Amino acid sequence: MSRKGAIRRIGEYFESDGFFDDLARRVAIHTESQEPDQRPELYRYLRDEMQPYLEPLGFACEIHENPVERGGPFLVATRREGDDRPTVMSYGHGDVVRGYDDQWRDGLDPWTLQKVGARWYGRGSADNKGQHTINLAAMAAVIEERGELGFNAVILIETGEENGSPGLREFCAANKALFEADVFIASDGPRLAPERPTIFMGSRGVFNFDLSVSLREGGHHSGNWGGLLANPGVILAHALASITTATGEILVPEWRPPPIPNSVRNAVSKLEIEGGENAPEIDPDWGEPGLTPAEKVFAWNTFEVLAFKTGNPDNPVNAIPPSASAHCHIRYVVPSDPEAFVPGLRRHLDERGFDMVEIAPAPDPMAATRLDPEHPWARWVVASIDLTSGKETAVLPNLGGSLPNDVFSEVLGLPTVWVPHSYASCSQHAPNEHILEGVSEEALRIMTGLFWDLGEPGTPA
Asked: pLDDT (tens digit, 9 = 90+) per residue, 165-198?
């Protein structure tokens, strides 16, 4: 009975195709939470796949209805081994984005896990079925080797993350007693680079909003009215251009975060952005001047125009359009105040003569969160991963993207540490989603070592 023994067990599980078989069953379930007709599949994933897997491992499982009508069900699985032992909360989401079945490469099907070289293709392989399959298999290896986990565990699997996690906040707030724990450790998102183990302790927030200019009813012939009627597309383009410089530096004061804290700056100084094969080339002169690429992604705010429409782009006509609109968002870090974003933009636009531009924020922005990189739990997890991998773990103060981490860090009040098992070029929301075989094998060993160490003396709890 040893740490090495548990890691050997997880290696045998991988080599015997145990991991492939478990993941293949899960990928085959069409848990598209954005498709109302697939709602029964959300229940099937929890009831027929996850519950039968977890109960033989000694977890008491219960499926809970979502307090929000459009939200999917939750599975809560608990295993208690003693009040004197640390309690760990973990999380995964069983839902996936739409399959886009007809857009995958020839020979690939989103609902059939397939090995092609070092890549395993299938919808949910990276986001998030593969990631929570790794973590649960690691717990199983520890139980088999030790006869117990050595700690208490509570696992939450939701089925609505790809639909904005409706009801997750309300469910956790109403059931805090279910999730009393010392630390939250889960997996989602990408590593900094495929070959480098990574942790992050929060995520940037995301604030979506629409800008629009509506000047009149209907289009008017540009030959008869050009030069006489204001063009809303031109007006909105200039309004958008006033928000940043031509190289992306934010010019709205309320959108700029305070100076980067030293602990965050020290952590990101060791990071180099590397998306793996097929990653786009970084534009070095884009964004906030004076920041490194890692600081721009993990320690600063960014503004993006995601879509812009005026007239009829698919079938343009020679007419001045009556309106224009743009869908935009801000990715923001702690301690930026999202409540100041719209008033700040309103003042900024009005001062420049763009009072005709309307601002419509989307409901329920995702909050920014960040655990200090020097937090004892963060340092403990890094030490465990370094021991198993023999590598230096990349420590991200927060993910560049967004996750519902504030539910766990703010609503439940837990220190949060994420250990991602994917990489930036995995096509997670696109056709041809995949995981890397080598990363998955290493992740299984890392998580087995981590869960073994949680049952040993010396945890921060």
From this structure: 999 999 999 999 999 999 999 999 999 999 999 9
Q: Do 194 and 262 belong to one domain?
A: no
- Angstrom distance (rounded) from CA 192 to CA 320: 46
Between CA 148 and CA 411 the distance in angstroms is: 30
Domain boundary among 310, 342, 361: 361
Residue type at 408? F
Q: Which two tokens stand for residue 175?
A: 């059931």
What single DSSP character describes residue 318? S
What is the helix (H) or strand (E) element at residue 326, kind and residue range?
A: strand 323-332
Residue (of 383, 453, 406) closest to 86 by Cα position: 453
One-letter amino acid at 429 equals H
Q: In this structure, are 71 and 187 located in the same domain?
A: yes
Identify the pLDDT of residue 275.
67
Whether residue 279 has pLDDT greater than 80: no
In whole angstroms, what is the distance from residue 263 CA to residue 55 CA? 42
Q: What is the pTM for the complete model shown? A: 0.88
Is residue 332 domain-shared with residue 412, that is, in the same domain?
no
Rounded to whole angstroms, the Cα distance separating 210 from 55 reads 46
Q: Is residue 208 reached through a cis peptide bond, with omega within 30 degrees of 0 on the bond before it?
A: no
Q: Comparing C-alpha atoms, which of 138, 126, 135 is closest to residue 190?
A: 126
